Amino acid sequence: MRTKLVVVAVACLLLLVSACGKQDAKNKEKMLGKWTVDVDRTIETLKKTPRYLALTEEQKKQVPEIVSKITSQAVMEITTDSIITSLRDQKAVTQFTVAKTEDNAVELESKGKDGKTYHITVNFLTPDVIQFSCPEAPELSNNVWKRT
User: Fold this and answer.
1) Which residue of 12, 45, 62, 111 is 20 to 30 Å from 133, comparing CA positions?
2) 71 touches 37 (CB < 8 A)
3) What whole-number distance in Å separates Cα of residue 86 and Cα of residue 74?
């Protein structure tokens, strides 16, 4: 009887580990593809920042037009090991490794040109909308991206 219990416990553990591995792969796959800035959600995010709150009322009125103008040409592609960001004729490539995955997030690690390690979390607001957070570069958290 005890042997059967151990076999069942091991089988359940293997099933759980297998399911977690499938969820990890699913989350990694979810972030792959091309993304553009979701201007409306980005503006709503910006409105909560100390920098925005410090603006005059006249400056605040200009934010939607400025954000739209700057970000309307931004395109980002996430591959299995890099984030390629294009804005007009400029392109930046950020290499990364996947550190861990959670239910609605994937944590990436990337080495900056300064040699510093950056911890970038891709948060899934919906399956087709993401937002980054990065303690080392808080400005990355301002833009909200939607799948193209």
Assistant:
1) 62
2) yes
3) 6
* Half-sphere exposure for 2 (CA within 13 Å, toward CB): 0
Q: Is residue 145 within 8 Å of 35, Cβ to Cβ?
A: yes
Q: What is the 3-state secondary structure (H, E, C) of 89-129?
A: CEEEEEECEEEEEECCEEEEEEECCCCCEEEEEEEEEECCE
Q: Which of 22-31, 54-63, 110-119 has the lowest mean pLDDT?
A: 22-31
Q: What does 33-94 look like in DSSP terms, one character per residue?
A: EEEEE-HHHHHHHHTTSHHHHTS-HHHHHHHHHHHHHHHTTEEEEE-SSEEEEEETTEEEEE
Q: What does the mean pLDDT of the chain come to?
A: 84
| Exposure letters 17-48 (e unless 16+ CB within 10 A, then b) | eeeeeeeeeebbebbeeebebbbebbbebbee
Q: Write out pLDDT tens, residues 15-34.
A: 333 333 445 667 788 999 99
Closest CA to 123 of 101, 148, 91, 96: 101
